[in-house]
Design goal:
The protein is about 25% helix and about 35% strand. The chain is of the alpha+beta class. The chain has one domain. About 15% of the residues are buried.
Length: about 170
């Protein structure tokens, strides 16, 4: 994955304390993962690395805009996303990333790649149900919405008179 080598953090030469890294994420980042559930993305990722004597603490702060297709109308709209991820990097005998909050690196490693963590944080920040904001406030004008309203089941307020006697039984029990 040479395309993601810019997301390698080399921690050996860093002094103890805080270090900041900034990344801009666009469609080319997600092309590496063959992920195409959105039209476009523009995110900024701020990573703060706290280097301590025995471990590393990383704080990911992700903010941006994703262009999505609405699940109901397929209209394109912009969705703002915000995500935060905390990761602890410890050192051990062998690599272990089974725990989503703790990464264990071998003592011999001098760098690690954070691209997978950025990818997962952004994908998980996307809404499950993608609904155009114009649908919620009623401002979206779409042929699909018009057709859905046309096909909507109209509730019949008139009750068949044959059910009146059954309704009387139900109301008399109360």
């Amino acid at each position: 994955m040479d395309a993601l080598k810019e997301y390698n953090i080399s921690f050996v030469g860093l002094k103890l304390g805080k270090h900041s890294f900034t990344y801009h994420i666009d469609n080319s980042f997600f092309e590496v993962y063959n992920y195409n559930d959105f039209k476009s993305i523009a995110c900024d990722v701020d990573v703060v690395l706290h280097k301590k004597t025995t471990l590393l603490e990383l704080e990911f702060d992700i903010k941006g805009i994703v262009k999505l297709n609405c699940d109901l109308t397929n209209e394109l709209f912009e969705q703002s996303i915000k995500a935060r991820l905390d990761l602890i990097v410890k050192f051990g005998d062998e690599f272990n990333d089974e725990n989503e909050e703790v990464l264990i690196l071998p003592h011999s490693d001098y760098q690690f790649n954070i691209a997978q963590y950025i990818y997962e944080a952004i994908v998980l920040a996307l809404p499950i149900k993608r609904v155009h904001p114009g649908i919620k406030d009623g401002t979206l004008k779409s042929d699909v919405l018009d057709k859905l309203k046309e096909l909507e089941i109209k509730e019949n307020k008139e009750i068949d008179p044959r059910w009146d006697s059954l309704n009387k039984l139900l109301t008399s029990k109360k």
